[in-house]
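Usage example:
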Amino acid sequence: MTQIAVNHKNLSAETIGKNWITLFLVILVIVFSLIAPAFFSIDTLQLILFNGTEVFLLGAAELFVIITGGIDLSVGFVMGFSTIMSSKLIVIFQGFGLPPFMSILSGSLIMLVIGLLPGLVNGWLVAYLRVPAFIATFSMLGITHGISELMTQGVPTKNLPSLAGIIGNGSFLYISPDRKIHFFTRPQVARGQVVVSILPNMVVFAFIFILIFSFLLSKTKFGRHLYAIGGNIDAAIRSGINVKKDLLKAYMISSFFASLAGISYVMKYITGKPDAGADLLLDSIAAVVIGGASMAGGSGTMGRTILGALVIAVVQTGLRIIGMQTFMTYILVGSILIIAVILDQVFPNLNR
Amino acid sequence: MMQKEHTASGRTGLTFFETPFGQFSARNWAMFFLIIMVIIFSLTGSGFFDITNFQNIIHLSTGTFLLAAAETLVVITGGIDLSIGYVYGLSSVLGAKVMQVLSSSNLSLAWVVVIGSAVALCVAILPGLGNGILVTRFNVPPFIATMGMWGICNGVTLFFSDGFMPVMGAPSIINDIGNSYFLYIDPSHNIRFFSKPPSIRISEIRMLIRLIPNSFFLSLLVFIVINFLLSRTKFGRHTYAIGGNKDAALRSGINVNKHLIMIYTISSFISGLAGLFNLFQTGIGNYTPSGANYELMAVAAVVIGGASLTGGKGRLFGTVIGVLVLAVLENGLQIAGISAFYRYIGVGILLIIAVIIDRAFPDFF
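Running the assembly step on the lines above writes:
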């Protein structure tokens, strides 16, 4: 009897421990809603998702590397590099006389290919030359930062087509007051009437890639190999996994997501600057760790990482809505990060 | 010589890196690199090879050196401290804030400066204490614990600096202390210590010779104290032992937890000292801007200096060389008229070289 009771008690404690981040998110939303009733609305939710796009993408980037037991410090500045490179490319294509949409599309696509390069170098250094991930990716941070500063010479990029802003700040669908649904274009209405906009484009854009790569991580052999490498690299080598190639791919995916974040930034703010992602390093690692991944590797899922990133996004946007200053954001994110790891120690079997 | 060649496991001849000179130059590659860099910059940039410029390099790299010295201690134990860059900003801003508030009271100037500095240094201990407790008692990995502390320190700094605003209003005397030199020789060969000759004319100021910045003494003091701790005391031996093999250190009776807490606290204290120096140097409480990566630069200096991130290895002298490499690179590029942004790329490449050399010669130091 007592045995069962104890088990039962452990079970409930474990359920709470397992889902503490969801619980925390709910409490956070309740607190914010009590302080500012306007917080609890569809618009705010969309604003949170919109503001958090880069955190989602960089969290996904960091996840692939952290699962293998590594770390990618370069994501923030690869993102900065991507903002500059893609906006320069778009401007160049526009100069060739391409229509705005085509120049944005081709600029972004070429950027995504270029964006694989930092990851290629990182992965090569880590997997083939056995440079510790911390050093290899920090070097890449320096190199991408240097190149971006040299490309801009201190002036943020400009002259982007206005279509970029329309795409970046637009929504997937709009509902006009007469209940008609419009895709992508905001309907013209009389002043004072409200158009409901649903699903910001950039959020859709981010989540398409996140879903694809989530599938890759959870359902394919490649995904399983990444967990195996992070869990025990020697065992992975002995069981015939091509560890070097898989590590290379993980770092390339990481920098691919970082360049996606850069493109998303360009679309949203119609400019590119070297330090666009400078203070997102803490956020991206925090998202993964709050999502329950271990820095030692071998654990972490995309769903929980997105949940972790959502917590950060809610804190950032929520604090702004209730009128707190930015400093509280840093304190809260830092504290949640530490608490997440402590809870991970208390409930070690959470994410298996 | 012949005999040596044949005994080397059947191979004939030694490769360059197996000769004593090769070993020496690979071990001290950073120093050689530094010397080569100084020679190149002296040839290319006018005004680089100059006593004033060298003093500038030392003066301006004081903050980096203190941060790197703090990082050296933590890296030797096999940990990493990412919070130092923001402890630096916290101490600078807090010191300035206290001095700003106190200078409107009727305390004497000396007390204002002393109390401000003392408060900044005392508060700078706290993040390190927190890091140490998290790392030892709660088993939080150092990377995460110090990264969380980075966020918290950044937040507290921004609270005191009212968002992204440098804190003004500290007494201007601190600027004089931070930027003055040990001795001045004026054109008529009179010598003064610590302060500019008061009667000097503006036209003569170019002929004034300034020797040994005060900041050099601060660096020297920190270097001597930490180097003594690391190489001559039980404290230092325990530090290396913990970094080399934590379990063995535990079994041989070292109080690892207490030691690690002390290491993180000292690291934080020295970063606070660096921040305070920054306040004395600029006269303004500077918050750490996002993307400044002071902590990563410190790690870079430590690794270029030959320490290994896996712990148990590293010398403070190596760190000094690492800091000088970074400082000379920046200064030389600036003076040669090359965009200083190349230094970010340079640091990246140097780090990779450092680690590859570290792999190739694992038994150094």
